[in-house]
Write the structure tokens for this entry.
Amino acid sequence: DLEISFWMDFEKMHENRLGDYLDLSLFLCSGLIRLGYDANVHIVQLDNGKFHSFVTFYDKIYYLLDPFRKEDFNKYSGENFGQLLLRYRINGHYIKRKVFTFSDKEFKEE
């Protein structure tokens, strides 16, 4: 048998610094869940028509983490989840609509 794998394991992804926005969001969300947080991956459409993903979790306040951005951990955090989404910007673009949200427990189409 010839074994061909198109999936990259974490070591290769980390070593080569590869992965798209969804790969990195899934990895970050998995790590937070493993640490005991109730974390979710969100897929959104921006006002420019492009799609993007990020991770949210709750620990006394909401946190929004984007694995592609190098920003302060607390930049997108707050008590009001809706306001957090309204404040979030990606290269100047805002969230036009939520497409879906998922975790290890559920999938929600918006």
In short: DSSP finds three helices and seven strands in the chain. The mean pLDDT is 86.
